[in-house]
Write a structure and sequence with these properties.
With 109 residues, the chain is mainly alpha-helical. The chain is built from 3 helices and 2 strands, in the order ββααα.
């Protein structure tokens, strides 16, 4: 069985794309990321999510530039911490997008 990690249904969440198995929309996930949540924080707060699902949501958003423009940084990547290269190591290539999924964290000051 292949899971469609990001789903969209006009009768669910007012048609907003959402993560499979949750009531968390792609937009809410990007808002968490922009607020400084990393993968560990997101999975702790939303245990129904999987790493693959989070990466798929980021990849989906990357393909929907106009819809998620408010979450794009000046360098073209999504604002906030993305998955590190180690976290994304086991993901399919389609989900290993620089700036959307893999974004090096800024060094702590």
């Amino acid at each position: 069985m292949t899971i469609k990690w990001v789903q969209q249904d006009p009768l669910v969440m007012n048609g907003e794309p959402f993560c499979y198995g949750s009531r968390l929309t792609v937009r809410q996930l990007l808002e968490l990321r922009r607020s400084g949540y990393d993968l560990t924080d997101i999975l702790k707060d939303h245990p129904e999510l999987k790493v693959m699902g989070v990466a798929a949501a980021y990849a989906f958003a990357a393909g929907q530039g106009e819809r998620y423009q408010a979450f794009v940084d000046a360098d073209g990547s999504f604002v906030g911490p993305g998955l590190t290269a180690a976290e994304a190591a086991g993901l399919p290539d389609a989900y290993r997008l620089p700036g959307a999924v893999i974004k090096e964290r800024a060094p702590a000051a």
